[in-house]
Amino acid sequence: MLSLDPETIISAALREPTEELLTPDNLRKLIETGVPLNHYIGFEISGFVHLGTGLISMQKVADLQSVGVKTRIFLADYHSWINKKLGGDLSVIRRVAGGYFKEALRVSLKIAGGDPDKTEFILGSELYEKLGVDYFTNVLRVSMETTLSRIRRSVTILGRSESEALSFAQLLYVPMQVADIFSMNVNIPQGGMDQRKAHVIAIEVGEKVFGYKPVALHHKLLPGLQMTKEDWEKLSAAKSNAEEFRDLLANIKMSKSKPETAIFIHDSEEEIKRKIRSAFCPPGETEFNPVLELARLIIFRDRREPLEIVNKKTGEKKTFENYSQLEEAYKRKEVHPLDLKETVAEELAKLLKPARKTFLEGPGRSFLEELRELKITR
Ligand SMILES: Nc1ncnc2c1ncn2[C@@H]1O[C@H](COP(=O)(O)OP(=O)(O)OP(=O)(O)O)[C@@H](O)[C@H]1O
Ligand SMILES: N[C@@H](Cc1ccc(O)cc1)C(=O)O
Fold first, then answer.
1. Cβ proximity of 102 and 118 under 8 Å
2. What's the complex ipTM?
3. Which of 8, 10, 147, 339 is least crowded, fewest Cβ atoms below 10 Å from its Cβ?
4. Which residues are known binding-site members for L-tyrosine?
5. Rg (the chain; Cα; Å)
6. Which reaction does it catalyse (predicted)?
């Protein structure tokens, strides 16, 4: 039930970590028609949930919940199967979806300030079984409106490159993802910026084929901790070319298939410290600095009290009321990268405590062990 005015809903949708909303005007129009707002975000089932897939994605779910939007989390078991995740075994994928993944996303949503009991979890195969031939019809409808070359260009959303040898099923992946949106009457599909190609197709075919235009919400991609100087230089040089910039960022994002780039939500305090200590964090550089991004997007997001950073060499303490103060001081080199890293690691460890409790002590323990035993990260 939406009792709030449109501008409040739009500003919740636009709040960071949102990178783009396609478009705020269309969201306003949608609200004005009075239709219920139905959001979804989908996940492939593989590997461990990290700060990007867990916290950043769930921050937006929490924002939308706060203004009464119906939120859904789609566990894309068929897509993971097509993409040969977890050894390509559909029964394992299904088990991990309802076990580890559901638990990891629930605790992430809680940490991000949302309510896991107020979000619906849907397993892809269950939706397809329920809809039967209607789902197949939706996949065909999307496919008939999309060219093969467009589909080939959009396989980057699977984490695959256009030039890679693909199975025919992998070409079906994108039309299926687009069909998922309409099969659940979703009008606010969410994903990281690397998912925009599927959503742009949905926006283009939606009106003609399904009678409405969804409003896509794309959140920022958290950069990988192990960005190199070369990556950083390429990113800086590509700033004015939106498409090149997006592709570069998608390649250096925090990713579960590159564990050293990622902090997993269940990582121990020592592990978090170790990973952050070895992260890329050039002194005085505030742009595309992965450690500062963690401070900005995660630590300062809902923080009410100031952040204290201690200079380990001199013992001097500095406090920051908000992110801009920290950014300015870092730019002036008044904060040493090592001190910043230490504080960021400590704060993250505090925030992630409920996830450690779930997976190391609580009900999630056996789920984590099962996934570890599978020893498959992709
Ligand atoms: N670093 C990130 N920051 C924010 N969101 C992310 C990040 N990585 C993935 N996501 C988002 O999480 C959802 C699931 O992504 P996905 O399963 O591809 O994650 P991943 O860890 O990068 O996996 P893989 O390593 O297999 O590519 C997508 O909406 C995606 O955009
Ligand atoms: N493509 C998404 C997974 C996904 C699959 C199907 C969907 O309907 C939505 C999302 C990813 O890379 O993780």
1. no
2. 0.96
3. 147
4. 40, 173, 177, 180, 195
5. 21
6. tRNA(Tyr) + L-tyrosine + ATP = L-tyrosyl-tRNA(Tyr) + AMP + diphosphate + H(+)
Which residues make Cβ contacts (< 8 Å) with residue 110, sequence separation at least 6? 116, 354
The per-residue pLDDT for 160 is 81
Which helix or strand (DSSP H or E) is residue 75 part of?
strand 71-76
- What type of residue is 94? R
Mean pLDDT of all residues in 327-335: 97
Please state, in angstroms and rounded to a whole number, the distance separating the CA atoms of residues 263 and 10. 31
6-219 belongs to which CATH class? alpha beta
Query: What is the residue extent of each domain of the chain?
Result: 6-219
pLDDT of 326 > 70? The answer is yes
Structure tokens at 228: 């190199």
Ligand 1 pocket test: which of 18, 50, 53, 101 has the largest number of ligand atoms within 8 Å of its C-beta?
Answer: 53
Residue 195 Cβ inside 6 Å of ligand 1? The answer reads yes
Phi, psi of 4 (to 5 degrees): -85, 160
**Predicted confidence (pLDDT) at residue 1 exceeds the cutoff of 70:** no
Q: Which of 242, 90, 210, 86 is nearest to 144 (CA)?
A: 210
Helices marked H in 57-210? 57-66, 77-82, 90-96, 102-111, 124-131, 133-144, 148-153, 168-183, 196-205
- Asked if pLDDT for residue 157 goes beyond 90, the answer is no
Ranking 155-169, 193-207, 271-285 by mean pLDDT, the lowest is: 155-169
> Does residue 41 contact residue 235 with C-beta atoms inside 8 Å?
no
